[in-house]
Amino acid sequence: MLEEIRTGSSRFSLVACRSLPTATELIPTAPLPEKPQEKQFSECIKNIQHYPPESAPVRIAAQLDKLYVERMGLNVRAVNSLKNGEIYTGLQLVQAAPEELRNLRNMGAKTIESVLEKRSELLQELECAFQVESHLPPQPAVNGTDGPGANVDVDAESPLHQFLLELAQFTGLQPGFLWKEAIICRSENPEAVDQELISCLWQREYIRTTSCQAILRLVDGHQFGISTPAILSAMPTYTSGDVLDGLLSELESQDRIRIQGDLVQRRLPTAMEFAQNISDERTKDFLLSKLRGETLDEIGRRYEISRERVRQIIKRALSRRPVLMEDRYLALYDRYEFSYEEFRLAFDEPRETYNYLDMIRTTKGERKPIRDILTDESIPENYRRKAERAIYRQYVTIDGVRIKKQRPELARYVVQTYCRELTTMEEFLQWYQLLLETIGASEDPSLALEVRTYENKLSM
Are residues 263 and 353 in the same domain? Predict the structure, then answer.
């Protein structure tokens, strides 16, 4: 690099100076590893036009073309680097060679590692599709007729036949490929009945991999998550709960989904994870502090800047965020008024989630009371059920009756239920105390009765 130096005579001279390495040059220059299969499928996808329109590779490529980099769970630096390099979708990512990705601006070593890992994940799905297309035997004959599948005696109404057809529909695999796998299972277990052959098929590598991909597509179609019974109902008949549990465990161990109770959701980065990956230390501290509950004034005093400047920096950082795990609550939080305690009771989320939603909410005016959620059919049923915990937090349910957890209402319930005939004050107090013990509130002083007050009321 040439640098201009002003001399004493006010002239300029050019001197050579050593150039500083760029961020890209600081990355190890060893070739980035790429599996032979990955290179093969990356090249094949560039020639996708040569495959039939209804083939598995074309269908998968179309899905990848609709998968934007912002929804891949990558950190903000990786997303920005890819977009700066005009890589906007999963299809463009798998078409790019590792060396091309390495040369993108602002690609640090960790960023490249995360991008290549995502690329390998997408190529794994393509690998299955190409393998299927290259191993399509003719559909086997049924009931002992000649053909490659003559050793598989399958009735058109049999469980195995129905399972194979539904599995093809669920995964996108070609029926011919599935028949071939069934033949292999039969050769390994000559005496096996249909259900045993189905269990064997669920152990086949490609079937498990493509089924995992099908489950991910199903989960991606549900912003608020999807229940395990709903996933099982979408899978082929004769699929056991144990099979689904195994597939979900694989996806969870790969950090691609998260499971809360029976609800399955796509694993996206959290707001805290996004903040912790911000490269600028000051911006990172601003956002982490705000997520943890610190006010703009408190942050500004620490850095000796105005609260407005802190707000601007946080707003700019949030504008670059990818889709985050907490975003699934945004429509709900925008529409309904939640206190933190109500939000925690309903969804069992930490304070940071509530603070993040409060920072990004788009409606600043008056919101509806949370009680209205119960009649809002646009909100998934499982979210409405969760909201009941906050809405009825001051209530108890006794024998199917919801009663407000306050002294007058509880006393009225005792009178109406146990005092239909002439009852002494002592008996009334015994019934009331038994009720408190039943609902676990016998030690709550706010529910204790003032005997003289209730003697007067009951005598009226």
Answer: no
